[in-house]
Amino acid sequence: MALENILKIIDPVKASAIEKALDGRDLTEKDIVELLRSGGLELTALTMAADLLRKRIVGDIVTYVVNRNINFTNICVMGCGFCAFSKDFRSEEVYFLPISEIVRRAEEAWRYGATEVCIQAGLPPRIDPYHYVHIVEAIKRKIPQIHIHAFSPVEVVYGANLAGVSVEEYLKTLKEAGLDSLPGTAAEILDDEIRAKISPGRISVETWVNVITTAHKLGIPTTSTIMYGHVENEHHIAKHLLLLQRIQRETNGFTEFIPLSFIHREAPMWKYNLVPGLRPGPTWREVIALHAAARLLFREEIPNIQASWVKEGAKMAQQLLEAGCNDLGGTLMNESISTTAGATSGQLMRPRELRNIIRSIRRIPAQRTTLYKIIKTYYNEEDETELDKIENPEEQFGSYWQLVKDPRFKRYVRQKN
């Protein structure tokens, strides 16, 4: 059935919101809430409209980046209810990678074709205030060409506070050291009441916005994210999305939007029943509706909508490519944070696997840079890369579970703490 015919028979409020988006008009909070509540034929219409807009805006190319995650420590002074990765420094399961090991991992990733390293970690006590700066400097000395996508707004604030300088001054120092872009994580839901429930003591909405907009002002691009499926409702999500849209209109600094499903299995607030009304992540319907609604809202303003295979799994990510998404994220090589929360999709997606996912829905795969410059478009399958040939990623790159048992990095923890 054609989209225009479906729009005639579904709820007129939802049909009107879809038509507004297709006509290029702004959506209101009420429009977004209605779209997020879509089901049945309404959801079909929403996904068809999102897919149509995706084709208009970015065409049939689906991108991915070859990258490695380096989560250099799981020691953290905070105890966010959704985070199963962080540990108190007295725990037996802590680790801390020295800068030499971080650089070694970055060099290894570069040899396997990575163009980016993504660096995020816990907030360890008694850390050198400029430790983040030293990490960036050390990597750039060895591999000046690699893109460093590093440090969430929480880490930036932590470093600035320890150093006794403003966020702007700290970001300038990071940029001068070689930081290329910032993850827009730590956003969760941009509502202080919700944040107080799932991550008390974490940075406020105002602080998050300040870090992001300051980075944009300094010429440091960032991603934008949302973490949903816990205690928020559609109005919280709609306000979050509209805030991101407002920031983008002011700064044009977001490279992409990445919805992140709450992974509940090992999250402390789920395991220990800490938050009343907590849900075990979003439903299939909610995941589809959010990605599609984001496409209708952001249109050309944030043209890249990412489907996270780490959070959703390969099959769901593939479905999301037909609901407005045009990017599959990165190969990762060493994803740890979602893994510790209970995600089951593994720690590496080989480029060949990403291309197969894309081709199976008759779209065109392309490797990109962090900032969405196309490196190579794969109209036909090419020879396997060295990264494609890896059979056992944990054996090659190690895993989180090996890290927490490695005595080399226990010694470093004791020296630091």
From TrEMBL:
Its cofactor is [4Fe-4S] cluster. Residues 62-297 form the Radical SAM core domain. (3R)-3-methyl-D-ornithine binds at S152, S308. Its EC number is 2.5.1.147. It catalyses: 5-amino-6-(D-ribitylamino)uracil + L-tyrosine + S-adenosyl-L-methionine = 5-amino-5-(4-hydroxybenzyl)-6-(D-ribitylimino)-5,6-dihydrouracil + 2-iminoacetate + 5'-deoxyadenosine + L-methionine + H(+). CDD domains: Radical_SAM. Keywords: 4Fe-4S, Iron, Iron-sulfur, Metal-binding, S-adenosyl-L-methionine, Transferase. Binds 1 [4Fe-4S] cluster. The cluster is coordinated with 3 cysteines and an exchangeable S-adenosyl-L-methionine. [4Fe-4S] cluster binds at C76, C80, C83. Pfam families: CofH_C, Radical_SAM. Pathway: Cofactor biosynthesis; coenzyme F0 biosynthesis. It is an enzyme of class 2 (transferase). GO terms for molecular function: 4 iron, 4 sulfur cluster binding; 5-amino-6-(D-ribitylamino)uracil--L-tyrosine 4-hydroxyphenyl transferase activity; 7,8-didemethyl-8-hydroxy-5-deazariboflavin synthase activity; metal ion binding. S-adenosyl-L-methionine binds at F82, E188. HAMAP family: FO_synth_sub2. Consists of two subunits, CofG and CofH. PANTHER family: FO SYNTHASE (COFH) (PTHR43076), LIPOYL SYNTHASE 2 (PTHR43076:SF1). NCBIfam families: CofH family radical SAM protein (TIGR00423), F420_cofH (TIGR03551), PRK07360.1 (NF005609). This is 5-amino-6-(D-ribitylamino)uracil--L-tyrosine 4-hydroxyphenyl transferase. It comes from Caldiarchaeum subterraneum. The lineage of its organism: Archaea, Nitrososphaerota, Candidatus Caldarchaeales, Candidatus Caldarchaeaceae, Candidatus Caldarchaeum. The gene is cofH.
